[in-house]
Each structure stands twice: as C-alpha cells, then as structure tokens.
What does this fold into?
Amino acid sequence: MDEEQRDMKAHKAYYNMLHFVSEAQHGIPKLCLSGSITKEIVDEEDTYDYLPGKRYFICKDHENDGLHFRQPWVMGMQEEVVNLKVRVNGHEKLLRECKTLKDSM
It folds into this structure.
C-alpha cells in the first residue's frame, strides 16, 4: 500500500506539472518552467511553395515530455495582442476618469 501511495503521488505531481505548463503558455513565453530560455524557431518540415514553414516559441532544452514549451508563434502573438488591448483599454478608461475629475474641479 505504501508503494502504491508513493506511485499515486508521483503521478499526481506529474499531472499537476502538465497542468501548470498548459496554464503558463499565455502570450509570448520568456522562460520555460525548466528555467531555460525560450527561442523562436522555424519548422523547415512544414514548408510549402510560398510559406517558409511554421514558427514556434520553443524551450532551448525541449524534450517531448509535455513539461517544456513548444507554442505556435501565431497563438503567442494573438494572446499578446489581446493582453495589450486590455491594458490600453484600462489606460484609456483611467485617462477619461482623470479628465472628468479635472473638469469637475
């Protein structure tokens, strides 16, 4: 039973780490959870006549175990643009509130 519990806890820790990796992949990743720097690569195998291949943000120590980043470039850029839009809207709202406060004085 003790061996079974240790095995179960190890599996739970592994699945928790997979969940953390999947939740951490928002925007442009700077660091992988392993501590390695992410870099931008072009997959040459996905080359068409007019497209140079797919771009990815990938951990420099990437292994196919699910614990390292390999995120499509388009998804990272799209999420980064959405985050920037939210920030700009927040700043715009703050500027409007400052203007109305200034006008009311």
Observations:
- Helices lie at 2-24, 73-104.
